[in-house]
Amino acid sequence: MSKINRGLEKGTLNLLAGSKLLDLLKSDKELFLGIRNNYFNVYFMGASIGKGFVNRKNQTLKIANKYLNSSLASGYSDITVAYLIKNLSSIKNEVKKFQVKKFEKIAQQKLVINNNLNPDSEWYCVDMEYVQQRENSDKDKYGRFDIIAISKQKQDDGKYKVALIELKVGFGAFSGFTDDFRKKMISNPNYFKRQKNCKVKVGSGILGHLYDYIGYTASGNLRLA
Fold first, then answer.
1. Whole-angstrom Cα distance, residue 197 to residue 13?
2. Contact call for residues 110 and 45 (beta carbons, < 8 A)
3. Among 142, 108, 113, 96, which residue's Cα sits nearest to residue 25?
4. Within this chain, do residues 111 and 214 fall inside the same structural domain, yes or no?
5. DSSP letters of 8-19?
6. Each residue's pLDDT tens digit in the chain (225 positions)?
7. Same domain, 115 and 185
8. Considering its fold, how many domains does the chain have in total?
9. Does 223 map to a domain?
Protein backbone atom coordinates (compact mmCIF):
# COMPACT_ATOMS: atom_id res chain seq x y z
CA MET A 1 0.00 0.00 0.00
CA SER A 2 1.41 3.40 -0.95
CA LYS A 3 1.80 6.08 1.67
CA ILE A 4 -1.20 8.36 2.02
CA ASN A 5 -0.43 11.79 3.42
CA ARG A 6 -2.43 14.67 4.80
CA GLY A 7 -0.57 17.94 5.21
CA LEU A 8 1.43 20.57 3.39
CA GLU A 9 4.94 19.95 2.05
CA LYS A 10 7.76 22.32 2.96
CA GLY A 11 7.73 24.01 -0.43
CA THR A 12 3.99 24.62 -0.16
CA LEU A 13 4.36 26.00 3.36
CA ASN A 14 7.12 28.37 2.25
CA LEU A 15 4.99 29.71 -0.60
CA LEU A 16 1.97 30.12 1.67
CA ALA A 17 4.06 31.86 4.33
CA GLY A 18 5.10 34.50 1.80
CA SER A 19 1.62 34.99 0.42
CA LYS A 20 -0.79 37.85 1.08
CA LEU A 21 -3.40 35.13 1.60
CA LEU A 22 -1.86 34.33 4.97
CA ASP A 23 -2.17 37.98 6.01
CA LEU A 24 -5.83 37.89 4.97
CA LEU A 25 -6.48 34.76 7.03
CA LYS A 26 -4.85 36.33 10.06
CA SER A 27 -6.90 39.53 9.81
CA ASP A 28 -10.30 38.11 8.79
CA LYS A 29 -11.66 35.93 11.59
CA GLU A 30 -14.59 34.80 9.42
CA LEU A 31 -12.23 32.74 7.26
CA PHE A 32 -10.72 29.34 7.99
CA LEU A 33 -7.86 27.51 6.27
CA GLY A 34 -8.47 23.75 5.98
CA ILE A 35 -5.42 21.60 5.21
CA ARG A 36 -5.68 18.66 2.82
CA ASN A 37 -3.14 16.49 0.96
CA ASN A 38 -0.69 19.23 -0.07
CA TYR A 39 -3.50 21.63 -0.89
CA PHE A 40 -5.90 23.71 1.18
CA ASN A 41 -9.39 25.16 1.21
CA VAL A 42 -10.35 28.65 2.36
CA TYR A 43 -13.78 28.47 4.02
CA PHE A 44 -16.44 31.08 4.71
CA MET A 45 -19.73 30.08 6.39
CA GLY A 46 -18.79 26.44 5.79
CA ALA A 47 -18.35 26.93 2.02
CA SER A 48 -15.03 26.65 0.20
CA ILE A 49 -14.26 29.95 -1.55
CA GLY A 50 -10.72 29.02 -2.57
CA LYS A 51 -9.11 25.64 -3.20
CA GLY A 52 -5.39 26.29 -3.42
CA PHE A 53 -2.44 24.40 -4.84
CA VAL A 54 0.36 26.82 -4.01
CA ASN A 55 3.04 24.48 -5.36
CA ARG A 56 2.01 25.58 -8.87
CA LYS A 57 4.15 28.13 -10.69
CA ASN A 58 1.29 30.61 -10.69
CA GLN A 59 -0.54 30.65 -7.37
CA THR A 60 -4.26 30.40 -8.09
CA LEU A 61 -7.37 29.40 -6.18
CA LYS A 62 -10.28 27.39 -7.56
CA ILE A 63 -13.74 28.69 -6.67
CA ALA A 64 -17.27 27.64 -7.61
CA ASN A 65 -18.73 29.98 -10.21
CA LYS A 66 -21.91 30.42 -8.17
CA TYR A 67 -19.86 32.21 -5.49
CA LEU A 68 -18.66 34.69 -8.10
CA ASN A 69 -22.15 35.18 -9.48
CA SER A 70 -25.20 33.45 -8.00
CA SER A 71 -26.82 33.30 -11.45
CA LEU A 72 -24.15 30.79 -12.56
CA ALA A 73 -25.38 27.29 -11.80
CA SER A 74 -22.26 25.16 -12.11
CA GLY A 75 -18.57 24.99 -12.89
CA TYR A 76 -15.42 26.42 -11.36
CA SER A 77 -13.01 29.24 -12.12
CA ASP A 78 -9.38 29.94 -11.25
CA ILE A 79 -8.78 33.23 -9.46
CA THR A 80 -5.68 34.85 -8.07
CA VAL A 81 -5.14 35.64 -4.41
CA ALA A 82 -5.20 39.32 -5.36
CA TYR A 83 -8.64 38.85 -6.94
CA LEU A 84 -9.95 37.09 -3.82
CA ILE A 85 -8.70 39.87 -1.57
CA LYS A 86 -10.08 42.64 -3.79
CA ASN A 87 -13.49 41.01 -4.28
CA LEU A 88 -13.87 39.29 -0.90
CA SER A 89 -16.85 41.37 0.17
CA SER A 90 -18.88 40.57 -2.96
CA ILE A 91 -17.87 36.89 -2.80
CA LYS A 92 -19.07 36.73 0.80
CA ASN A 93 -22.40 38.25 -0.21
CA GLU A 94 -22.84 35.60 -2.92
CA VAL A 95 -21.96 32.80 -0.48
CA LYS A 96 -24.54 34.08 2.01
CA LYS A 97 -27.30 33.56 -0.57
CA PHE A 98 -26.54 29.82 -0.57
CA GLN A 99 -25.51 29.30 3.05
CA VAL A 100 -27.99 31.50 4.92
CA LYS A 101 -30.15 28.53 5.98
CA LYS A 102 -27.35 25.98 6.30
CA PHE A 103 -27.23 26.35 10.06
CA GLU A 104 -25.07 23.29 10.62
CA LYS A 105 -22.36 24.47 8.21
CA ILE A 106 -22.34 27.93 9.79
CA ALA A 107 -22.14 26.48 13.31
CA GLN A 108 -19.43 24.08 12.18
CA GLN A 109 -17.10 26.84 11.03
CA LYS A 110 -17.80 29.01 14.07
CA LEU A 111 -16.90 26.10 16.33
CA VAL A 112 -13.65 25.50 14.45
CA ILE A 113 -12.59 29.15 14.47
CA ASN A 114 -13.52 29.74 18.12
CA ASN A 115 -11.61 26.63 19.14
CA ASN A 116 -8.48 27.62 17.24
CA LEU A 117 -8.57 31.14 18.69
CA ASN A 118 -8.83 29.74 22.22
CA PRO A 119 -5.31 29.42 23.71
CA ASP A 120 -6.66 27.12 26.43
CA SER A 121 -8.00 24.53 23.99
CA GLU A 122 -6.08 21.25 23.94
CA TRP A 123 -6.99 20.73 20.28
CA TYR A 124 -6.34 22.43 16.95
CA CYS A 125 -8.82 21.95 14.11
CA VAL A 126 -6.99 21.41 10.83
CA ASP A 127 -9.83 20.79 8.37
CA MET A 128 -13.56 20.43 7.78
CA GLU A 129 -15.51 17.93 5.66
CA TYR A 130 -12.98 15.12 6.14
CA VAL A 131 -13.32 12.18 3.76
CA GLN A 132 -11.10 9.13 4.12
CA GLN A 133 -8.35 9.37 1.52
CA ARG A 134 -8.18 6.30 -0.74
CA GLU A 135 -5.71 4.94 -3.26
CA ASN A 136 -8.52 4.60 -5.84
CA SER A 137 -12.30 4.86 -6.14
CA ASP A 138 -12.76 1.09 -5.82
CA LYS A 139 -11.79 1.21 -2.16
CA ASP A 140 -14.58 1.41 0.43
CA LYS A 141 -15.40 4.90 1.65
CA TYR A 142 -16.97 5.41 5.06
CA GLY A 143 -18.88 8.65 5.16
CA ARG A 144 -17.72 12.19 5.76
CA PHE A 145 -16.76 13.77 9.09
CA ASP A 146 -17.39 17.43 9.81
CA ILE A 147 -14.15 18.30 11.58
CA ILE A 148 -10.70 16.78 12.00
CA ALA A 149 -8.54 17.99 14.89
CA ILE A 150 -5.17 17.07 16.40
CA SER A 151 -4.00 17.44 19.97
CA LYS A 152 -1.53 20.26 20.65
CA GLN A 153 0.54 18.02 22.89
CA LYS A 154 2.09 14.63 22.16
CA GLN A 155 1.00 11.66 24.23
CA ASP A 156 3.27 9.43 26.31
CA ASP A 157 3.97 7.29 23.23
CA GLY A 158 5.24 10.35 21.35
CA LYS A 159 2.21 10.57 19.07
CA TYR A 160 -0.52 13.17 18.73
CA LYS A 161 -4.18 12.31 19.21
CA VAL A 162 -6.54 12.74 16.27
CA ALA A 163 -10.25 13.51 16.65
CA LEU A 164 -12.90 12.96 13.95
CA ILE A 165 -15.82 15.15 14.98
CA GLU A 166 -19.40 15.12 13.77
CA LEU A 167 -21.63 18.12 14.46
CA LYS A 168 -25.41 18.02 14.35
CA VAL A 169 -27.87 20.90 14.63
CA GLY A 170 -31.57 20.30 15.22
CA PHE A 171 -33.71 17.35 16.30
CA GLY A 172 -33.91 15.98 12.75
CA ALA A 173 -30.52 14.34 13.32
CA PHE A 174 -32.20 11.82 15.68
CA SER A 175 -34.38 10.27 12.97
CA GLY A 176 -34.03 6.55 12.30
CA PHE A 177 -33.90 5.32 15.90
CA THR A 178 -37.04 3.20 15.64
CA ASP A 179 -38.00 0.27 17.87
CA ASP A 180 -37.27 -2.07 14.96
CA PHE A 181 -33.75 -0.65 14.64
CA ARG A 182 -33.09 -1.05 18.38
CA LYS A 183 -34.16 -4.70 18.28
CA LYS A 184 -31.91 -5.46 15.32
CA MET A 185 -28.98 -3.64 16.90
CA ILE A 186 -29.32 -5.56 20.17
CA SER A 187 -29.79 -8.97 18.52
CA ASN A 188 -27.03 -8.56 15.92
CA PRO A 189 -23.67 -7.08 17.04
CA ASN A 190 -22.59 -6.73 13.40
CA TYR A 191 -25.63 -4.69 12.41
CA PHE A 192 -23.59 -1.49 12.36
CA LYS A 193 -20.96 -2.79 9.94
CA ARG A 194 -22.13 -1.05 6.81
CA GLN A 195 -19.97 -1.95 3.82
CA LYS A 196 -19.81 -0.74 0.24
CA ASN A 197 -23.14 -0.97 -1.65
CA CYS A 198 -24.99 -1.78 1.58
CA LYS A 199 -28.76 -1.53 1.10
CA VAL A 200 -29.45 -0.32 4.65
CA LYS A 201 -30.75 3.26 4.46
CA VAL A 202 -29.73 5.21 7.53
CA GLY A 203 -29.48 8.78 6.24
CA SER A 204 -27.01 11.42 7.34
CA GLY A 205 -28.17 11.87 10.93
CA ILE A 206 -26.56 10.48 14.08
CA LEU A 207 -27.57 6.95 13.14
CA GLY A 208 -25.90 7.17 9.74
CA HIS A 209 -22.70 8.49 11.25
CA LEU A 210 -22.63 5.66 13.78
CA TYR A 211 -22.53 3.30 10.81
CA ASP A 212 -19.81 5.33 9.15
CA TYR A 213 -17.64 5.67 12.25
CA ILE A 214 -17.80 2.02 13.22
CA GLY A 215 -17.20 0.93 9.63
CA TYR A 216 -14.24 3.31 9.36
CA THR A 217 -12.56 2.21 12.58
CA ALA A 218 -13.11 -1.47 11.72
CA SER A 219 -11.76 -1.11 8.17
CA GLY A 220 -8.10 -1.04 9.17
CA ASN A 221 -7.58 2.30 7.43
CA LEU A 222 -7.22 4.28 10.66
CA ARG A 223 -3.45 3.98 11.05
CA LEU A 224 -1.53 6.94 12.41
CA ALA A 225 2.24 7.39 12.17
1. 39
2. no
3. 113
4. yes
5. --HHHHHHHHTS
6. 344 567 888 777 776 777 888 899 999 999 999 988 888 999 999 999 999 875 555 678 899 999 999 888 789 999 988 999 999 999 999 999 999 999 989 999 999 999 999 999 999 999 998 876 666 666 666 667 889 999 999 988 888 998 888 888 876 666 666 666 666 666 665 655 544 444 455 666 777 777 677 767 666 665 544
7. yes
8. 2
9. no
Q: Please state the pTM of the whole predicted model.
A: 0.78
- Whether 33 is in a domain gets the answer yes
d(CA 2, CA 154): 26
* Short-list 101, 222, 78, CA closest to 163: 222
Give the torsion sign (CA, 220, 207, 198, 179): positive
Dihedral sign for Cα 163, 169, 171, 172, please: negative
Distance CA 28, CA 42 (A): 11
Do residues 40 and 8 touch, judged by C-beta distance below 8 A?
A: yes
**Whether residue 132 is found in the same domain as residue 78:** no
- Cα-Cα-Cα-Cα torsion 57, 31, 22, 161, nearest 10 degrees, comes to -90
Which conformational region is residue 41 in: left (phi greater than 0), alpha (psi within -120 to 50 degrees), or beta? beta
Final residue before a domain boundary, out of 100, 117, 135:
100
Name, in order, each residue with C-beta under 8 angstroms of 217's C-beta and a sequence gap of 6 or more. Answer: none
